[in-house]
Design a protein that fits this description.
- The protein is elongated, with a radius of gyration of 32 Å.
- It has about 160 residues and is mostly helical.
- It contains eight helices and no strands.
Length: about 160
């Protein structure tokens, strides 16, 4: 009959082997995330140059005192209306169609750029106005504006 195994020797890596594996793992992570690491370094450098990194560091070190000061400041009576309206503002932001607003903002910016390029010194008479309505871009803009006004007027 066989004897029971009572002495189990575990395989243990030397400290040098563990360090070598860790260094290799870090090298692979750096290679895989090179762009992110470089952008992080650029960000830290910019924060350092502007003095913001030092401010953030000081804030983290004194976070309890800083937060106490913020709470003490917000507790003043002048901020009461803001704090009362804050929940409604959060719900309003949740109801907004952000992609629609982004689209509208982009179109408004395009219109403003076009207006600045062409100027507003030119006057139009009724005949010019009728001719302009045939332009598909202007017609589309007026149609969108009318739809907007109609939707805004609904209850």
């Amino acid at each position: 009959m066989a004897r029971a195994i009572t002495d189990i020797k575990r395989f243990e890596k030397s400290r040098e082997e563990v360090i070598e594996e860790n260094v290799q793992e870090v090298k692979e992570a750096v290679a895989d995330n090179k762009e992110a690491i470089l952008q992080g370094i650029e960000l830290l450098s910019a924060l350092q140059k502007e003095g913001t990194l030092e401010t953030l560091s000081a804030f983290v070190k004194a976070k309890d005192e800083t937060l106490a000061n913020v709470v003490r400041e917000i507790d003043k009576e002048q901020y009461t209306p803001l704090l009362n309206n804050l929940p409604e503002l959060v719900f309003l932001l949740g109801d907004l169609n952000v992609s629609g607003i982004r689209n509208l903002s982009s179109r408004l910016n395009n219109g403003l750029e076009r207006m600045e390029d062409e100027g507003t010194t030119k006057k139009m008479n009724m005949l010019d106005f009728a001719k302009v309505l045939k332009d598909p871009e202007i017609n589309r803009s007026l149609t969108m504006l009318m739809s907007f006004l109609k939707g805004m007027g609904q209850k």
